[in-house]
What we know:
rod-shaped
Amino acid sequence: xxxxxxxxxxxxxxxxxxxxxxxxxxxxxxxxxxxxxxxxxxxxxxxxxxxxxxxxxxxxxxxxxxxxxxxxxxxxxxxxxxxxxxxxxxxxxxxxxxxxxxxxxxxxxxxxxxxxxxxxxxxxxxxxxxxxxxxxxxxxxxxxxxxxxxxxxxxxxxxxxxxxxxxxxxxxxxxxxxxxxxxxxxxxxxxxxxxxxxxxxxxxxxxxxxxxxxxxxxxxxxxxxxxxxxxxxxxxxxxxxxxxxxxxxxxxxxxxxxxxxxxxxxxxxxxxxxxxxxxxxxxxxxxxxxxxxxxxxxxxxxxxxxxxxxxxxxxxxxxxxxxxxxxxxxxxxxxxxxxxxxxxxxxxxxxxxxxxxxxxxxxxxxxxxxxxxxxxxxxxxxxxxxxxxxxxxxxxxxxxxxxxxxxxxxxxxxxxxxxxxxxxxxxxxxxxxxxxxxxxxxxxxxxxxxxxxxxxxxxxxxxxxxxxxxxxxxxxxxxxxxxxxxxxxxxxxxxxxxxxxxxxxxxxxxxxxxxxxxxxxxxxxxxxxxxxxxxxxxxxxxxxxxxxxxxxxxxxxxxxxxxxxxxxxxxxxxxxxxxxxxxxxxxxxxxxxxxxxxxxxxxxxxxxxxxxxxxxxxxxxxxxxxxxxxxxxxxxxxxxxxxxxxxxxxxxxxxxxxxxxxxxxxxxxxxxxxxxxxxxxxxxxxxxxxxxxxxxxxxxxxxxxxxxxxxxxxxxxxxxxxxxxxxxxxxxxxxxxxxxxxxxxxxxxx
Length: 750
């Protein structure tokens, strides 16, 4: 196979790996979006609580070490550990190495006792995780753009005054970027080959990187080379970046920027510890970079800001090209080299493992002054790492980041399967424990409802029975009330009749009031029974409203006759009753038949004795006085007898008035349904007075049952959600594992 064919084959193989990596990145991004949607709408993702370590080195080193061979050979994905597999003493105190990319950094300081996570609510942690997922999606979008980009970008970064600009100048063998003893770079400077600008060397000051187009003059400002130093050092117009098109002087190995394989851009950056804004921009910018060249001042070694940068970059870049500059100024170089390598071993184990190719101790000043063998070797290694080992420089960061994300997804999925399982068990236990109480409450509600209805029905029935019987008896004995009225003689007969009628009416009113009082007593008794039932309900231990429906100072059982008395009068017939002439005349002799019979018998006996004793005298008298005279005598006797009868009737007139008025009032009351009316009225009043208390009792029981049912429904809903989440996260773990194996299958091997 010819060299050309071999090169074409390698390019095609690399393009196939890029395509596969692009597909897996899309799948990973889809998983993250799905998790975020599920976290927001269905189940707040359970996040394991963890104390913050003294520093972040342990986590990063353990993660990097565990994946030291991932790039070269595929290996099985680490199975995520669940809390069920962790000892009880550590079940809620997980090691920081369990998560890497999706770890929420909530440190307020570097103190081990700082446990910010434990003080946050689940919803707050879910929101933080959602933000972290969105950041990961954005990072994957940048990885997709980097894989699709045919060029390679090299970010030259490091602490202030580490010699970054000098290194860039040395790499292109031209004194392009300004350099000084003091920190001078205030913005990103991207150096590319002039062939990308039609061979014209120019400097473009870019206000917005996203809107930049070299063919659109409005998207940049041309800067003269003599003004470059002022722009780089001051940046008064707040440009985001300088785009420098230049023709580099190739080395013996050829051009780095325009090498015939892939276009390379060198990006000089501001110092890490210049200010927080520049540091934040640098952290974000490295996500768009294929290769990071970290420049370390040999006199200062790695500062804290440099360590944080490398830890952050280590989430995706297992290999970092490190240049220890100004090495010529060090007197004890072996000691300096040993100390720097010890730091690198903790910061980036894979970089340390390939330190002969990735870590270089050079002097950029020596290279600009006349050349340096150490610098030439460093340049050769950088060229090889960027051009010949494109899998490591371009695909490996995406592979590493994706693998870390999928590992975290597997871990969170396993955690949430365990959390859902525990929640299901807890809910089942609560439902089992509450079931006897719920069933007992249903029975108590049914029994109390039946007893309340019985109290109501029996009370109303007793009021109806008593009222009907009592008023019926009263109606039959109205004359007894009239007997108590004093009779003032025949001349006061009319007044007597009026008093009798008034006495009968008052008697009826009194008896109706008596029925009202009995109804009040019955109502009070029924309320007392219902109050006792309510007290029994309250003793169940649930907070409930009082049975009282009136003011708080009133007795719940008190009720007066005035509260249930009839509105208006007790009878419309009695209101319109007037004396009549018939009330004084009793033509029904059957009621006085005994009296008249006794009178007739007495007169007959008297007459028979007189006639027998003087029979012959009357015969003699009739013969002597004649028939006419005898007739007159008989008529006179009859008149005397009639007059006696009339006298007797007149003398019995008070009894007649009492009897007749009692009869007429009884008929009037019967005609208007007096007894039934008041029985119905008092029954209705009793029901109206008792029923609210019965309803209140039933309502309180119903509310207790509904509250319990609401709790049960809430438990069941939560259990269904936990069951759905258990299934979802179990399937999610399987998908993540499958996708992780596919990502790891992309290797550097041909």
